[in-house]
Amino acid sequence: MSIVLVVKVSEGLVLAADSASTLHGRVESPQGVQEGILKTYYNARKLLQIGDFPIGVLTWGQAYIGPRTVESYIRKWEHGHKWQSRKEYQAEYDDSFIVRDVALGLLTHLREAYEEEYSDDQQPVLGVLVAGYSEGEFFPEIWRFVLPMDDDVVNQRPDVDGKPDFGASWFGMTDPIVRLHFGRDEAVVRSISETFGIPESEVRDALQRLEYRIPFAMMPLQDAIEYANYMLNVVIGRYRFVVGPELCGGEIDIAAITQREFKWISRKS
Questions:
Q1: Measured between alpha carbons, how far is 238 from 128 in angstroms, rounded to an integer?
Q2: Of 30, 56, 120, 131, whose CB is crowded by the most CB atoms within 10 A?
Q3: d(CA 161, CA 219)
Q4: CA 268, 86, 71, 80 torsion: positive or negative?
Q5: Mind listing the pLDDT tens digit for each residue in 196-255?
Q6: Which whole-number Å values give the CA distances from 187 to 211, 232, 243, in the listed order?
Q7: Beta bridge partners of residue 57, listed in sequence order
Q8: What CATH number does the domain containing 258 carry?
Q9: Residue whose C-alpha is closest to residue 15's, from 258, 269, 260
Q10: Domain range for residue 227?
C-alpha cells in the first residue's frame, strides 16, 4: 500500500511518497498455505519525474501490473512518446508541453495494460497523480485518475472564482492524516451515527470545529516541504507501532517543483 501527498502553495508544488510496496496473493509452501500479504518491499519508487520537465508523478494502491512495477510502465510510455527531454519532445512535436497531456497519455497507456492483466472480478485500485507546470504557465496543475473507475483525468485542485486553490491532498492509507487534520475519521463518524442514530452529515458538521486550520496560501515552499515530510512520518509511525502489517514505510521521497525546475529534496539511492 502507500501514502502519497501533494501540496500546492503560491511558490510551487511539493510531492512526497513513502517506499513500501506489498505483494498480495496465495502460495503453498512446506509450512502450509499462505494467503494475504506475502511480501513487503521498502524500496518502491512512487514519486517520479517525467524526463527533465517540471512535472512529477505519484502512484498509490496497486504497485504492480502483472509481473511489472507501475514505474516500469510509466517509463515505457515516457520513452515511447518523447517525454524524456524537452529538446527531444519539441523536436518531435514542435509544440508546448502540457501537464494534462501527460495525465491523459498515462491513463490510456496504463488502462490498456491494466485491462489486459485483470478480469472484471479482480480489479485492484491503482491511483496516479500528475502535477507540475505547463509551458508558459505561472501556476501549477494537478491531475489524477484511479483505475478501474476513471475514464478521464480529474483536476484535483481547479481554480475557484478564477483564483488558484492552494492546499494539500493525500492518497492511500490516509486515516492518520485525516484524524490529525480534522479531529476524526470516517470510522468515528459512522460509530457516532450508528450509536446515537444521528445522520452522518450532522456528525461531520458537529465535529467540524475540531479541524486544524493551515494557511496554505501563505505557506513558503520550504515549509510545504517540511509539512509533507511531517505528514508522511505521521502515517509511517502509525503503521510501524499500531498492531497490524506495516502497509506504509521505508524512506520518504520528496520533490519540489517550480516553473524553473523539478528539484529532489530527498531521494533514496
A1: 24
A2: 131
A3: 21
A4: negative
A5: 999 999 999 999 999 999 999 999 999 999 999 999 999 999 999 999 888 999 999 999
A6: 16, 21, 17
A7: 48, 130
A8: 3.60.20.10
A9: 258
A10: 3-23+37-173+217-266
185, three cell numbers = 475519521
Q: What residue has cell string 497531456?
A: 101
4, 16 contact by CB (below 8 A): yes
For residue 184, being part of any structural domain is answered with no
Q: Tell whether 65 is covered by a domain.
A: yes
Residue 28 resides in a domain: no
Distance CA(74)–CA(88), nearest Å, equals 18
Q: How many helices (H) and strands (E) does the chain have?
A: 7, 14
Whether the Cβ atoms of residue 258 and residue 54 lie closer than 8 Å to each other:
yes
The predicted-structure confidence for 159-191, as pLDDT tens digits, reads as follows: 999 999 999 999 999 999 999 999 998 899 999
Contact indicator for 261, 49 with CB cutoff of 8 Å? no
CB 2 within 8 A of CB 46: yes
Angstrom distance (rounded) from CA 240 to CA 195: 31
Nearest to 180 by CA among 246, 221, 227, 249: 227
DSSP state of 160: B
Q: Around Cβ 268, how many Cβ atoms within 10 Å?
A: 12
Handedness of CA 98, 104, 107, 109 (dihedral sign): negative
The CA distance from 157 to 216, in Å, is: 13
Q: What is the CA radius of gyration of the chain?
A: 20
The model's pTM is: 0.92
Report the alpha-carbon distance of residue 124 to residue 10 in Å, rounded.
Answer: 35
- AA letter at 217: A
Identify residue 73 by its one-letter amino acid code: Y
How many structural domains does the chain have? 1
